[in-house]
Amino acid sequence: MSTEVTTAMKINTLKRHFRESIKSLGRNSWMTIASVSAVTVTLILVGVFALIMMNLNKVASDLENDVEIKVLIDETAGKADEKALMEKIEKLPDVAESTYSTRENELTKLVKDFGDDFKLFEQSNPLRNVIYVKASDPQQTAKVAKTIEKFNYTYDVMYGEGKVEKLFNFLNISRNVGIVLILGLLFTAIFLISNTIRITIIARRDEIEIMKLVGATNSFVRIPFLLEGMWLGILGSIIPIAVIATLYHNVYKIIAPRLKGELVQVLDFSPLVYQVSALLLLIGVLIGIWGSFMSVRKFLKI
Amino acid sequence: MIEMKNVTKKYPNGVVATNGISVNIKQGEFVYVVGPSGAGKSTFIKLMYREEKATSGDITVNGIDLASLKNKKVPYLRRQIGVVFQDFKLLPRLNVYENVAFALEVIEEEPAEIRRRVMEVLELVGLKQKVRMFPNELSGGEQQRVSIARSIVNVPKVVIADEPTGNLDPETSWEIMNLFEEINARGTTIVMATHNREIVNTIRRRVIAVEGGMIVRDEHGGDYGYEN
């Protein structure tokens, strides 16, 4: 019985907090609009940036996975030597797989890629037998290549030296620049939200004073403001979610067909856009609550 | 009920508002606190409901030790104390009923209980006919009645009033005083800071005179003692 009463009371209280927080948004409509706009601008940029970064990551990992080591086998190696070499390579801890390809096979590929002119070489094939090696972690490619180089009967070891590293460097730099930019924007949004809440608090100073005089607990006084901050964040994330969904839908329509059959692909609309939308909503709610928390702490002194 | 031992309050700016005050107010007493402006009356009163925290000394209110009371627990102290002000402190956008109910809503009282108790106290203060009116539609005396109703709606052990008749004409002041006497007659302790000489000299009760942060006089049935 008594727990029932307590629960009913809690629900009433919660309803009251929600009602108060929503009413308050309307009462300070100009500040509400200002903070919601700030959150909106911030989240649009966060969203676009997230879409770009996630696609660049995809491109990078596509390229990365394509990186393989080409081990040219010395012509003096016999069948048994080749087999021994391959076994030795496969025993290396960082090697995921290796494939053997004969010189004839290599020439066929060359002709296929670059045209019939290369058919001339069918008379005297200048190519060598090859072992293709993939590292289990693409980042370890260089290390694996250097180890294989020292083995007997290797004529040459080749991999896309430098290119992958450059791409990763570029990704890291743009990610850092983006993060700094977004942090700046987030702080601006938090600042504006805490200002809005501050004005709400000032507008309701008398009410808060009376609440405290008649014995309202601190959390009772605080919760409506935190809820109000949360609403600001949620309202601010609606437009950004619509923008990134529309934007990505259209960009995908243009880019995806052109990349058909290519090594590099962009991410599909689903689940990417849903994930980014959820992220934006979460960020909106968090900065809303955080912004109002700062104000409440400072101006209520409770 | 309210016990102070050697209580000193020094504000951060160096002003000593109360200087070693000791006093004992029993349950059911009616106490006037008098003295010139700036003598420390307000601080003396504010110390009782922990609006101000004593710098040194002990204060016990209804068995609660205010010195060791954590800030988080202050709301529970306040629920046992009703406070009435000179400027009423009503919320202008709430009507009479809502202003009184507010005190119970914020302590998460049950809705049915809120309705019952609000109507009960509004009847006591004689405003049952005006529950739907807003503060700006009421006279000063009526507004003070609403604020008194709010202060007693959660049945506190003590009502603390800071110049409750300060903004009212003499006739209305008497009506408000009658109300306080009635509340006192029901066993509620009343502590009232006042400048109203006529009231103190007519409704004779215990008078505590504060000057320079110290109690200079404490007599039952005393007079106001100042020319104002």
Describe the structure.
The complex is a heterodimer of chains A (302) and B (228). In chain A, strands 2-3-1-4 form a 4-stranded antiparallel sheet. Chain A contains 9 helices and 4 strands, in the order ααβαβαβαβαααα. With 302 residues, chain A is an alpha+beta fold. Chain A is elongated, with a radius of gyration of 31 Å. Chain B is α/β, with parallel strands linked by helices and 228 residues long. Chain B has helices spanning 41-48, 74-78, 96-105, 111-124, 140-152, 170-185, 197-202, and strands spanning 2-10, 16-25, 30-34, 56-61, 64-65, 81-85, 158-162, 189-193, 206-211, 214-219. Chain B has a 6-stranded mixed sheet with strand order 6-7-8-3-9-10, sandwiched between helices. A 4-stranded antiparallel sheet of chain B has the order 2-1-4-5, covered by helices on one side. Chain B is globular, with a radius of gyration of 17 Å. The model of chain B has no long low-confidence stretch (mean pLDDT 93). At the A-B interface, α1 and α7 of A face α2 and α3 of B.
Strand order of the largest sheet of chain A: 2-3-1-4
Greatest interface by residues involved: A-B, 21 and 22 residues
Dominant shape of chain A: elongated
The oligomeric state is: heterodimer
Sequence of strands across the biggest β-sheet of chain B = 6-7-8-3-9-10
Strand content of chain A: 5-15%
Radius of gyration of chain B: 17 Å
- Low-pLDDT ranges of chain B: none
The overall average pLDDT of chain A, rounded, is 84
Largest sheet of chain A: 4 strands, antiparallel
Number of strands of chain B: 10
Q: Point out poorly predicted stretches of chain A.
A: 1-5
Number of helices of chain A: 9
- The domain tally of chain A reads 2
Taken as a percent bin, the fraction of beta residues of chain B is 25-35%
What level of helicity do the residues of chain A show? Answer: over 70%
Give the overall form of chain B.
Answer: globular
